[in-house]
């Protein structure tokens, strides 16, 4: 093995380190959906049985009495990307909504959210995500109040 081959080998190794995991979401982009249609679909699928959406009132809400309402939309300190939203909908147990007691969001490690994968079309998913995204805003977290610093 000569020096050149070692150099090429090292280069390949370095490149392998930069290659995204085959399961990574890199390269995944949804087409633009329609906000209005998304809101209609959200209501049609009765997502509001367990959710409120900031700034939206739904006409007929059949709430499930034993399910804690999980608020969607509103001001968050971290951007809710469409990747986050799609994952929350098609793979709810991947991670649970923050700010709730475990028992309100999950049971035996599984999300309490209903799975829609066998009934929701991709167009419906795209529209719902576009609708939800339009109701999230990002706020700066309040800075930690530090007292004056004296030398
Ligand atoms: C039976 C109740 C129930 C229904 C119906 C339901 N969800 Fe959920 N949903 C939950 C619960 C509980 C959570 C919190 C646990 C989790 O993150 O999976 C959640 C979480 C979410 C989150 C993530 C919120 C966050 O802050 O991370 C999104 C987005 C969401 N749901 C969208 C939907 C949409 C869209 C529908 C309708 C197609 C729907 N849900 C229907 C119970 C429900």
UniProtKB/TrEMBL annotation:
GO molecular-function terms, A-Z: electron transfer activity; heme binding; metal ion binding
Alphabetized PROSITE patterns for the sequence: CYTC (PS51007)
Domain Cytochrome c: 33-136
Keywords: Heme, Iron, Metal-binding
Pfam families noted in UniProt: Cytochrom_C
Gene3D superfamilies reported for this sequence: Cytochrome c-like domain (1.10.760.10)
Superkingdom: Bacteria
Keyword presence, Zinc: no
Protein name, UniProt field: Cytochrome c domain-containing protein
């Amino acid at each position: 093995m000569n020096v050149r081959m070692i150099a090429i080998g090292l280069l390949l190794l370095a490149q392998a380190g930069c290659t995204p995991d085959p399961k990574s979401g890199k390269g995944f982009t949804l087409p633009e959906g329609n906000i209005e249609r998304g809101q209609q679909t959200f209501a049609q699928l009765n997502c509001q049985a367990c959710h409120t959406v900031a700034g939206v009132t739904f006409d007929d809400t059949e709430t499930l009495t034993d399910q804690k309402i999980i608020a969607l939309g509103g001001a968050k300190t971290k951007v809710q990307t469409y990747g986050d939203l799609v994952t929350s909908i098609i793979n709810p147990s991947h991670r649970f909504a923050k700010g709730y007691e475990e028992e309100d969001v999950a049971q035996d490690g599984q999300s309490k959210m209903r799975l829609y994968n066998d009934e929701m079309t991709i167009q419906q998913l795209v529209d719902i995500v576009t609708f939800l995204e339009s109701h999230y805003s990002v706020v700066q977290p309040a800075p930690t109040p530090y007292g004056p610093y004296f030398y």
